[in-house]
Structures are given as structure tokens and as C-alpha cells.
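Need C-alpha cells for this chain, all 134 residues.
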Amino acid sequence: MNSSKTHGSDSERSQIGKRIRGLREARHISQQTLANKLKLDRSAVCKWESGRTKPSIEHMKLLADYFGVDPEEISSAAKNVQANSAGPKSAVERGKAFVDAFLISYGNTPLSSFLDNNETGGEQDVTGDSDSRS
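Here are the C-alpha cells for all 134 residues:
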């Protein structure tokens, strides 16, 4: 039997699943998209959201990084921890979470590889000069 099924009550798994689904739906992404980002099969995400299983500690960390929340925020509903106990993340923490999620998804791919080769950070006219309009 899968150990993730045996850990936690049905209610705990259900609450974690609802939290994962809520985070996913708030970002308007499919189970398949989330699974792809975490390098998992879609059925794993489906099982978490339905409460049949709960994520491992490693997957909980990946989910938290991807969604930019603390792992406790995903599992806290199941533990009846007050939602406001952690408080909102600062902009720096959200930025770090974004960078972590980017690195998980894309490895050490330089950010410049996501820009057009002609992209210089400023507008250019047909002569190649930077646009000086205000």
C-alpha cells in the first residue's frame, strides 16, 4: 500500500486536496499543467485533490514553491491552524519563491533565452536606435 494513503486521516487528505485544488484553480491552470510543472503524472494531482492520497514532503515543498506559499499553508487547513497565523509573504519572499519555481521548471536556463534575440529592453525604431520618446 502506498504510504501516502496511510498517513493522515481521510479528512486531512481531503482538506489538503481542497487547498491544492483552490491554489491551482486560483491560477487558472489545469491538473495536467500543474503535473507537468512538477514533472509528475496528472493522476498524482488528481489523487491529491480527491483526497485519495496526499503529497509526500518533497512534493509538498515543490507545490509550495510553485504556488509561492509556505508548505504549512497547504497542510494547515488539515491541522486546523488559523489561516492568518503565517501572515502574507513579503515581496522579497514572493520573488524568491518565483525564482525557486523557475529554477525547478527550467533549471539553469538563462532568463535571456526567453527574450527575442532583438530584445534590448527598450523600443527601437527601424534604424535600430533606441526610441527616445517620453
